[in-house]
Amino acid sequence: MPPLTVALALMIGAAGAIAGGLGTALGIGGGVFLVPFLTLALGFPLKSAAAISLATVIATSCTVTLHRAGHQLINLRLGMVLEVATTAGSLLGGITAQFVGETLLERLFGVVAIAIALVMVTRLRRRNILSDPGADPGRFGGRFHDEESGRVVTYRIKRMPVALAASFVAGNVSSLLGIGGGVIKVPILNAWCGMPMRAAAATSALMIGVTATGGAIIYYGHGDLQALVAAPAVLGVQLGSWAGMKVTRHASVKWLKLLMAAVLAVVAVLMITRSLR
Amino acid sequence: MSAKSAPAGLEQMIGGVLRWGTVLSSTCLAVGLVMALAGYQAEAARLLAEAGLLVLIATPAGRVVVSVVEYARERDWLFVGLTLVVLGALGGSVAAAFFF
Q1: Does residue B92 belong to the interface with chain A, where contact is any CB pair within 8 Å?
Q2: CB count in 10 Å sphere of residue A8
Q3: From B5, B49, B57, residue closest to A217, measured CB to CB
Q4: CB contact under 8 A, A238 and B89
Q5: Residues B73, A168, A78, A66: is their CA dihedral positive or negative?
Q6: Beta carbon pairs, A and B, within 8 Å
Q7: Contacts of A142 in chain B (CB under 8 A)
Q8: d(CA B7, nearest CA chain A) in Å
Q9: How far is CA A35 from the centre of its chain?
Q10: What ipTM describes this predicted complex?
Q11: What is the pLDDT of residues A75-128, one digit of tens each?
Q12: In terms of CA atoms, which chain A residue is nearest residue B46?
């Protein structure tokens, strides 16, 4: 790993700010962007990059959640249930990471990213909203004020086992790859479980903090998480998250999905190319 | 029957825990980083950044603890159980970090 200089700190901070800004609106943290940057552009080993990234995921999760708390967008009950699956997955993944090679991890990352980009593109126009806003949201559904349409909208959760399975997988790859796992949960909650994009993003933002914590603890214990290198990344991501929330508050969901799909595709190609060298 | 929304107070309490955790950890990380880059008190700088990092990692765990307590106060035993499992898994990570 290169020594920490002012220039390096500024670069890491700027990358963090961009990653945080891009990731925030989608409830995915910025790890999915930050890990490739740290490994590909700065030559960090994947384990250090993943560890730093997990720290930034915790930071985004905290920042976003504390700003969204009290706006009904976060589905606390659903989040707490799915967290059981993500933390279990993360615990197993964190242990696996110690035994799985770097090349395999990079390929995994690439394949997962491409799959998710495809899911996002096929679902640009779908909205998961019950036609009657007064309808019963059911046990895990919810209701919130939608900024884009200016109305109160209601949704129900379908296919709870799919949501739980996705959360488990999200937790598992989370610690392996240093991402929050939101990048898997949000599209699946949105595509198959009936959750509107914004609610899925806000609920995911809540969950990724706890998911990333499991992995971060393990990396920290193994000496792979260095505080001074993580510091500029965390601070940059905090700044980016805050700015991202301001900017994307009124952005249309369709463009957010497109943006996410595009970045994911680029990242996937980069990661796979690297793993083939 | 409408969804039992989470206790209204819980969301606010979670927000509070996250706010303090974020402010405290960011401050430590920022001061530590600036000191380290300025070459001032290298060891103190590293310790400060380390403390900031640990506070950051502890913050989501603190949020889960607050949830356990609040659900227990509401006598919502299912959610007490679920949040305790999450806390247990985090404990498992601590064990994995130091014993594997």
Answers
A1: yes
A2: 16
A3: B57
A4: no
A5: positive
A6: 176
A7: 3, 5
A8: 9
A9: 12
A10: 0.88
A11: 888 999 999 999 888 888 766 666 777 678 778 778 877 887 887 788 776 666
A12: A228
Cβ–Cβ of B4/A209 closer than 8 Å? no
For residue A112, give the nearest of A172, A39, A157 by alpha carbon.
A172
Give the SS3 label for residue A70: coil
Extract the tokens encoding A96. Answer: 């696996």
Question: Residues A17, A23, A25, A27: is their CA dihedral positive or negative?
Answer: negative
Q: Write out chain B residues lying below 8 Å of A210, CB-based.
A: 60-61, 63-64, 86, 90
Burial class (CB in 10 A: 0-12, 13-18, 19+), B75: exposed
Lookup: tokens for A52: 């730093």
Asked if residues A116 and A265 have their Cβ atoms less than 8 Å apart, the reply is: no
Q: Per residue in A72-111, is it b (16+ CB within 10 Å) or e — as a string?
A: bbbbbbbbbbbbbbbbbbbbbbbbebeeeeeeebbbbbbe
Contact call for residues A20 and A238 (beta carbons, < 8 A): yes
Q: Which of B64, B82, B94 sits opposite A210 (nearest CB)?
A: B64
State the nearest Cα–Cα gap between B11 and chain A, in angstroms.
6
| Candidate from B5, B29, B63 with C-beta closest to A231 | B29
Q: Do A77 and B3 touch (CB under 8 A)?
A: yes
| Encoded amino acid at A149, one letter | S
Chain B residues near residue A10 by CB distance under 8 angstroms: none
Domain locations in chain A as residue ranges: 6-276
CA atoms within 13 A on the CB side of A44: 25
Nearest Cα to A26, choosing from A250, A202, A252?
Answer: A202
Q: What's the CA angle centered on B96, arms B94 and B100, to 5 degrees? A: 140
Side chain identity at residue B57, one-letter code? I
Selection from A220, A179, A178, A230 nearest residue A9 by Cα: A230
Q: Which tokens hold the place of A83?
A: 């967290």
- Lowest mean pLDDT across A45-54, A208-217, A248-257: A248-257
Global pTM value: 0.86
